[in-house]
Design brief:
The structure holds two protein chains of two kinds. Chain A is of the alpha+beta class. Helix content of chain A is 23%, strand content 22%. Chain A has a single domain, classed as Alpha-Beta Plaits, CATH 3.30.70. The longest helix of chain A has 10 residues. Chain A starts with a strand and ends with a strand. The chains are: A alpha+beta, B alpha+beta.
Chain lengths: 65, 432
């Protein structure tokens, strides 16, 4: 699975970080989210799907590959 | 204005009927249409569908926050519906559009990111403990006056770079301007107090050049001196906005949660035992109560969004509070489900205007809630003394939330000492 955040849509709600803190990090300067590695470890896939559903802006997309 | 096929409803978020009917009123409107039209306040759209709201929030170029009371630009009415009568200034960057709005946020964001906010946790914790210590021997507390008004206010002072003890000068004016309806006899006096507060802020702003204190005021003033196109009046408007946003919303959220937890001992224990439950519960309380109920917009040009036609100049109320009860987005929307997650609530707003203090609000709220549940596990609210805001259409808040508990002995220093000690520390090393 690959995950991507659209930086123009993310507004820093931080809920993805709440869902999957190992995958989604928050920028020091404004709290907007980023992923250090777009390849999702197998044990994080379910949490990332939750993150997609909880993002208030719909900024996260996944490619189940 | 209503000339086409729009669904016209009798609606006013400032009315007693709204307060009495919240949140069920959400369903009465949405079952007719996710976008309805009220003829009150000169006419405005009410957006209650969660998906429609999300779509509209992605288009700040179509739905403007601009407030232009002097008619220099398009004369738009800003985020309050109705617009304040006789106003001459706009409410900081919340009443601006991008890119101007983003310039202010760029300066302030570094103070309010999760990482920056974390550095203030020790102050919030010590202050919360002191607020409780100041009342524990009496066995009685007003959660609003004795805790939820105090902590966010002192914290906001610190973040702005104002003397912490000054919170008392800002607290009552900042709350009263929100909970007093403009047509009430008390309003003139409230307005007077608010103007005195703005005056005080203007002086504080001027003093940053002669006696600089680290914080958000200095950052704004410095940015202006460094060439940012910040109008002096807009900086002042921004400070009023940060005070309003910093004080009233977290107070409201904390009050709602403590009131709901009255008579729910199992939930209290679970919240204390499980930090991850506290995380999801915080999002759920903010969704359910939605302290900042909505925001006004003005349509910038004739357009169609989500299948609805909007005409230039029309006013729109983005009803976050009502969209947060949309059953298409949340199962059992009128129930508080502490473990609800995912929870894509709109309580901090959506799009470029997302509440800039959301991380601060979460940290303050969770700290206050945890300390209360730890220290006063047996508190009981006194229903006859509970006073909610008369008008909840702007902020869904409480004026009073009294409670009793078995008296106990104090464990730490009083609020005044904590404030003094922290002031001393901030003079040397501000957290942000």
């Amino acid at each position: 699975m690959k995950v991507r955040i659209d930086p123009d849509v993310c507004q820093g709600h931080t809920l993805c970080n709440l869902a999957a803190p190992k995958v989604f990090s928050l920028r020091e300067e404004d709290g907007h989210a980023y992923v250090a590695d777009e390849d999702v470890p197998a044990d994080q896939e379910e949490l990332v799907r939750k993150a997609v559903l909880t993002c208030p802006e719909g900024a996260i997309s996944i490619d189940e590959g | 204005m209503a000339s086409d096929d729009r669904v016209v409803v009798d609606f006013d978020q400032h009315s007693p009927a709204y307060k009495a009917g919240f949140p069920q009123v959400s369903h009465e409107l949405r079952s007719q249409c996710p976008a309805t039209w009220s003829e009150r306040h000169g006419g405005y759209w009410i957006i209650t569908g969660r998906d429609l709201l999300g779509e509209m929030a992605k288009h700040p170029e179509l739905f403007s926050n601009d407030h232009d009371p002097l008619g220099i630009r398009q004369g738009y009415g800003g985020v309050a519906i109705p617009s304040p009568v006789g106003g001459t200034t706009r409410g900081g960057f919340l009443e601006m559009d991008p890119p101007e709005q983003l310039e202010y946020r760029r300066v302030l964001n570094p103070f309010l990111s999760p990482a920056a906010v974390e550095r203030w946790r020790p102050l919030v914790t010590e202050l919360t403990k002191a607020c409780l210590d100041d009342v524990v021997e009496s066995g009685a507390i007003d959660f609003v006056d004795d805790l939820a008004n105090v902590v966010p206010a002192v914290l906001t002072m610190g973040m702005l770079g104002l003397p912490l003890v000054d919170w008392v000068h800002y607290c009552e004016p900042a709350h009263a301007i929100v909970y007093t309806p403009p047509n009430s006899p008390a309003f003139a006096k409230v307005l007077e107090g608010n103007l005195a507060m703005v005056e005080r802020l203007a002086e504080a702003m001027a003093s940053m050049r002669t006696r600089p204190r680290a914080g958000m005021i200095k950052a704004l003033v410095d940015a202006r001196d460094d060439g940012a196109d910040f109008d002096e009046g807009d900086i002042l408007g921004t400070l009023v906005l940060l005070i309003g946003g910093g004080f009233d919303t977290t107070t409201a959220l904390t009050s709602h949660a403590l009131h709901w937890l009255d008579g729910r001992p199992v939930d209290r224990q679970q919240l204390l035992a499980d930090p991850s439950l506290l995380d999801t519960a915080a999002e759920e309380f903010v969704r359910y109560a939605t302290p900042a109920q909505g925001g006004g917009r003005t349509v910038t040009r004739d357009c169609e969004v989500g299948g609805f036609r909007f005409a230039e100049g029309e006013r729109v109320w983005m009803a976050y509070a009502l969209a947060n009860h949309d059953p298409d987005a949340y199962a059992e929307p009128d129930e508080i489900v502490l473990e609800r997650f995912p929870n894509r609530h709109a309580a901090f707003g959506l799009g470029v205007h997302r509440c800039i203090g959301s991380n601060l609000a979460r940290m303050s709220f969770k700290t206050m809630l945890t300390e209360v549940l730890t220290r006063l596990p047996e508190y009981r609210c006194l229903e006859e003394g509970v006073v909610r805001y008369e008008d909840i259409g702007t902020i869904n808040g409480y004026q009073h939330l009294p409670a009793v508990f078995p008296p106990q002995s104090r464990q730490g220093p009083p609020v005044v000492d904590v404030i003094d000690a922290w002031q001393e520390r901030l003079e040397h090393d501000a957290p942000a």
